[in-house]
TrEMBL record:
Pfam families: HD (PF01966). The keyword Transmembrane does not apply. This is HD family hydrolase. Keywords: Hydrolase. Residues 55-143 form the HD domain. It comes from Thalassovita aquimarina. One of its GO terms (molecular function) is hydrolase activity. SUPFAM superfamilies: HD-domain/PDEase-like. InterPro entries: HD_domain (IPR006674).
Length: 198
C-alpha cells in the first residue's frame, strides 16, 4: 500500500483551499491575506508594546516608504510593494537567520506563492528586477525603523544591518502598534484602493 501523501493545502477562512505546493490565483482572496498578515508578528514577536507588530502593518509602511521614494512609480508597483510579504499569510514571517537555516526550500515556496498572488491581482508573476530592488530598499528602511523603535537595536546596529536611511524619507513616520483588527482593516482598504486606481 503506497504511503499517504501529507496534506499540502490550507483551508482559509474564506473557504478556499490553498495548495502550498501548487498555488493558483483562484484560491487567493484579499480578506485571507489581510487577516493572516494582521496576525503574523514581525521579529518573532520580540518587540516592545502591548501588540505584536504585524506583517500587515509592516507592509503598509513599506508601501508608504516606496511611494515617498518613487512618487512617479505606477500604481501597480505600489500594489506590488504592499503585497511584497503577502506569502507570509500562510508561511509566516521567518527572520533571516531562520531562512538561512531552512535553506532554498523556503525561497521556492515563497516564489510560487508570490507569483500566484501577483497574477490574482493583475500583476506580472515576476516583477521587474529594478522594481523589486526599489521595494527591497523601502523594506530595509522599514526594518531600520522597526529595529530602532520597537526591536531594541541601537542606531549604530541598525545602520550596520539595514543601512542608514535618508532622514527625509522617514520624516513624520513612526511605528504603530495596534490591535490586529485595525491593521487588517487598513490593509484590506489599501489593497482595494490601489486595485481601483490600477
Amino acid at each position: 500500500m503506497p504511503a499517504k501523501q501529507p496534506r499540502a493545502w490550507q483551508r482559509m477562512l474564506s473557504g478556499r483551499r490553498l495548495d502550498l505546493l501548487d498555488p493558483t490565483p483562484m484560491d487567493i482572496e484579499v480578506e485571507d491575506i489581510a487577516h493572516g498578515l494582521a496576525f503574523v508578528a514581525r521579529w518573532n514577536g520580540q518587540t516592545l508594546g502591548d501588540f505584536a507588530y504585524s506583517v500587515a502593518e509592516h507592509s503598509l509602511l513599506v508601501e508608504d516608504l516606496f511611494t515617498r521614494m518613487y512618487p512617479a512609480a505606477p500604481v501597480k508597483w505600489r500594489l506590488a510593494a504592499l503585497l511584497h510579504d503577502a506569502p507570509e499569510y500562510v508561511i509566516g514571517d521567518m527572520i533571516s537567520p531562520v531562512k538561512a537555516a531552512v535553506g532554498p526550500g523556503y525561497d521556492e515556496l515563497d516564489k510560487r506563492l508570490i507569483a500566484a498572488i501577483h497574477i490574482r491581482f493583475g500583476l506580472p508573476a515576476a516583477i521587474p528586477v529594478k522594481v523589486k530592488k526599489q521595494i527591497k530598499k523601502a523594506d530595509r528602511i522599514s526594518a531600520w525603523m522597526e529595529a530602532t523603535q520597537i526591536a531594541g537595536f541601537s542606531v549604530t546596529e541598525a545602520n550596520k544591518f539595514f543601512g542608514e536611511p535618508d532622514p527625509q524619507v522617514i520624516e513624520g513616520l513612526s511605528i504603530r502598534l495596534r490591535p490586529p483588527v485595525e491593521a487588517r482593516n487598513d490593509y484590506t482598504a489599501r489593497i482595494e484602493t490601489l486595485l481601483r486606481e490600477c
